[in-house]
Amino acid sequence: MNNTVSNITSATPHSDRIRVDLQLIADMVEPGTRVLDIGCSDGELLGYLTRTKNVDGRGLELSNEGVRNCVAQGLPVMQGDADRDLGDYPDGAFDYAILSQTLQATQRPKEVLSELLRIGNKAIVSFPNFGHWRARFDLMFRGQMPQNPNLPIMWYETPNIHFCTVRDFVGLCREMNLKIERSMVLNESGSRVSMDSHSGFANFFGNQALFMLSK
Amino acid sequence: MSSIADTQKRPPLPGHHMVLGETDKLRLDSGVEFGPFTLAYQTYGELNADKSNAILVCHALTGDQYVADDVHPITGKEGWWREIVGPGKIIDTDKYFVICSNVIGGCLGSTGPKDINPETGKPWGLDFPVITIADMVRAQTMLIDALGIDTLFAVIGGSMGGMQVLEWCKSYPERVFAAAPIATSFRHSAQNIAFHEVGRQAVMADPDWCGGNYLLEGKKPARGLAVARMTAHITYLSQPALHRKFGRKLQNRGAITYSFDHDFQVESYLRHQGKSFVDRFDANSYLYITRAMDYFDLSMEYDGRLAEAFTGCKTRFCVISFSSDWCFTTAESRTLAHALNAASCNVSCVEIESDKGHDAFLLDEPDFHMVLSGFIEGAAQGRGLK
């Protein structure tokens, strides 16, 4: 799936280094748990969780190349997509269902979200915030769809079809009666920004948002 | 003159032979209690002290136990999976103990229809009991028991070999740590059954088949078996691969001959495939083994609910398909992988882009090798194998 975040690594206490926003997700995962990473790409997060947190991890990835690279690293990954292929997994099969930077590219985000919380006890979801001031600026003053380092692809080529703002997402969670266990907003490089993620500030200044949900 | 005499004159095939089912017979799906019987097998590498490094490789319809030999005792060619199995290879015989046995019903040393029925003193022919994929696997378990191995590190195979892999995981999940079913399916499709039937009818239509008693009659249904092989061979290739290799090129001639001679290279190639096949394969074995594949359907005893075949299975799976394989399609592999998912199994599922058709699993396909290698290494770490 499309990754809208640039490839920056953070200083972590682990010998392993992964992209900053993925590290924030990894930090939410308890060791020794069962994890499904949907849209796992080349297995960066999944491999990290397997190596450093001893999780029983599985991946689902749309691109054949991604799947191949994951399996070649010994990670159990299958080809499939979030819209079509979550239905096969049994209820409660995982402790965490992770959907990183992928929700906005799904056909039916609401159904996908409810599937995440059917197969996982908790869902960890991250997405680009369309309420970010740059997006607002682009629309308001340039009169064009936002294009920035976080959303680098032109409107006619982007796989992102369901944009939302942090506030929209919180609204959907409320409508679906989902409990927001944790939430944070991230800056352009994927690092955490310390502000109340439900605030208008967060919705204005956050490049991306990261939520942990439960039912 | 007599083929029986020929068989007996031929020096015994190299490799191991184990007589099994002397006291506890092999209970076949058909209800027949069969035994004693022989399994011919090859091993490569050394079994480690705790017997945890054994890999069983399962061969396809016309394959055999000589998976990694330098020289095949009949064809004189290299073993059929030398690309994959050997010292330093993906299935590294410096690290793993590799076992490959000729299936029961086969014709390369394991008991099959060309062998002598002890009750009559004549070749079994069509009196040989019908066998299934599950019977082949049950016979293999007896061999693995006899070798003193409790759990196989991995069971790996393509095509019919992949069916055996799946049968192992369904029936003996606790004995298989990792499984790679390749270019295969959990059931034989109608199209595949149809092609097999064409092949069998070709054999049976050959007057030299003699109702299955050709060995007694001192004959060999070579033409029928060759046609069966020619048809099957087409299904193992893809349309683009066949066209790339031969196009409409003519065979050693400048123009078409207005005859039924093999004008086209592709005709000549198929005739050669058919002809060389009959030198190494028994026609009745071909009937029996194709039948075993036709009968294979892991979901049957669960009323089509395939996932139930793998309930509680702890084996880690790597399901591999090839994009141009029209015998065992990616769609079938995905159905299998979805069922494994639904059973909470640990499963990888990869489609390899290739235009070489079903036979791609036997050929030099770097992406396939990369995936299989990663899977085996990951599993070896999981198993604590150094």
Radius of gyration of chain A: 16 Å
Contiguous low-pLDDT stretches of chain B (5 residues minimum) are 1-8
Helix run count of chain B: 10
Return the average pLDDT of chain A rounded to an integer: 88
**Which of globular, elongated, flat, extended, rod-shaped describes the shape of chain A?**
globular
The end-to-end span of chain B amounts to 54 Å
CATH topology call of chain A: Rossmann fold
Please tell me about this protein's structure.
- The complex is a heterodimer of chains A (215) and B (386).
- Chain A is of the alpha/beta class and 215 residues long.
- Chain A has one domain (20-214): Rossmann fold, CATH 3.40.50.150.
- Chain A is 30% helix and 22% strand.
- Chain A is built from seven helices and eight strands, in the order H-E-H-E-H-E-E-H-E-H-H-E-E-H-E.
- Chain A has helices spanning 20-28, 44-53, 64-72, 109-119, 133-142, 166-175, 200-205; strands spanning 34-38, 56-61, 77-79, 94-100, 120-128, 179-186, 192-193, 208-214.
- An eight-stranded mixed β-sheet of chain A has the order 3-2-1-4-5-8-6-7, sandwiched between helices.
- In chain A, strand 4, helix 4 and strand 5 form a beta-alpha-beta unit.
- The longest helix of chain A has 11 residues, at 109-119.
- Chain A is globular.
- The two termini of chain A are 26 Å apart.
- Residues 1-14 of chain A have low confidence and may be disordered.
- With 386 residues, chain B is of the alpha/beta class.
- Chain B has two domains: 3-188 and 299-383, Rossmann fold; 192-291, Orthogonal Bundle (Rna Polymerase Sigma Factor, Chain: A).
- Helices cover 34% and strands 16% of the residues of chain B.
- Chain B contains ten helices and 14 strands.
- Chain B has helices at residues 3-9, 133-146, 160-171, 190-205, 222-236, 239-246, 265-280, 283-295, 330-342, 366-383, and strands spanning 16-20, 26-27, 33-34, 37-44, 54-58, 85-86, 91-92, 97-101, 116-117, 122-123, 152-158, 176-182, 316-322, 346-352.
- In chain B, the strands form four sheets. Chain B has an eight-stranded mixed β-sheet with strand order 1-4-8-5-11-12-13-14, sandwiched between helices.
- In chain B, a hairpin with a 5-residue loop joins strand 2 (26-27) and strand 3.
- The longest helix of chain B has 18 residues, at 366-383.
- The radius of gyration of chain B is 21 Å and the shape is globular.
- Chains A and B meet through helix 3 and strand 3 of A and strand 13, helix 9, strand 14 and helix 10 of B.
